[in-house]
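User: structure tokens for this one?
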Amino acid sequence: MTIGAIKMRKTIIISIILLAAFLESPSAFLLVDNCPVSSPCTCSGSSGSSYIRCDSKSLTSIPAIKQSSYHVNKLYLYFYTNKLSIIFNNAFRNFSSVNASEIDLRLDGNKIKTIETNAFSGIENTTNLQLQSNNLTTLPLAIGNLFKLRSLNILDNPLHSLDESVMSNIGRSLISLSIDFNHFTEWPHELHFLRVLHSLSVNHIPFSHLDIHAFHGFEQTLTYLSVKESKLGKVPFAICYLSHLSSFEFSYNSNLQENKSSILEPCSRKLTSVTTLKLDSNNLHIFPDMFSLFPSLTSVSLYNNKLQYIENSKVPSDSKLTFLSLQLNHFERIPYALNKLKSLRTIYILENHITTIETPDLAGLTSLMILNINRNPITYISPNAFRHNPYLSYIALEHTHLDHVPVAVTNVTSLAYFYLSGVPIDCTCDGMSYLKQWNVSTISTFKANCASSSETIKTYIMNALQACP
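Assistant:
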């Protein structure tokens, strides 16, 4: 085949690929080639989605759009991080000419104080609206005109009230709401109109208690609940009515303290649907009795608390937990109670005060695959520390106080990822003779360098160490 023929063949193949892409989503290409907004805005598109990007352009108003007659499955309108303060009536009217089935509208990171009632005329089929980090004090009536709205983020606004008619209108379709209550004087009853809500993120609740019917209206539909930076001293009893809740986050609540009384209000039944729990950055000194209320937990994070020990009675032997984060606490030893977690696969216990890992510490974790214990002042690891962990494939011991590669690591037959960066290890024949028979070639990621050179420890073991007498 001649060079000319080969070039012709490549040209034909490229043309076929472009034609196939065009046939799959011709409108996306047309919108890019004939961008309906002028500079500094830009257009892009692929696979039935088109983007009109006017973000971070110091805009003070929504730019005009040229008439077009394209159809796209989803249109992304990005106007975030500008200098918008008012969205006037009919600001988006001509955007309707793009004829999108769904619209994702981002207005976050502006200075918006006012959105006029007919501001969203022409894009009433908006499904996702991002308004976080603006200056809105009440929910604009214009939002009530978005008859297909599924997701609304209005965090970091000085809201002090919710309009009942707006909530009633969007309550038929809204499945995700993120909102700040910092300036509210009471829990807004208008939330009860959200009859199909799946996800609720609430920040800065300024009161210490919630009414037991706070989640009335969506008790049967809510699957995700996040409460952050509140004044609540306990997990509210209102969650007891959330029969389908699967993921619950209660974080950054400085008033939450486990003491003689539990942080969990007693429910008349166990919440067996909850599988994921986050209690990060609270003020917990004692490990919470969480399994009694949430017996089906598979993932738990207790990041950045003040935990020092775990009572054996608070860990059930039949737990289904597979992931546990105890990062940034005050543990001086790996809690022995964790050995009851036979299904645990991943544990993050980095940035604590652990100095040794003894043989019994991980003996019961027979399913353990990932152990991250970075940034602990570890000076000693028992040679048999990982003897009972046959599936252990990831070990992270970075920035510890070790001065050698632990013998225990060499006995881990399934090891694939090993991290020892930040540990000063001298690579010498005498100091590493015990590693000569270690087959490090099976470790795909081995991050550790010799202290006196830029050579990696893996390379040293495979080459220089083998030449040692």
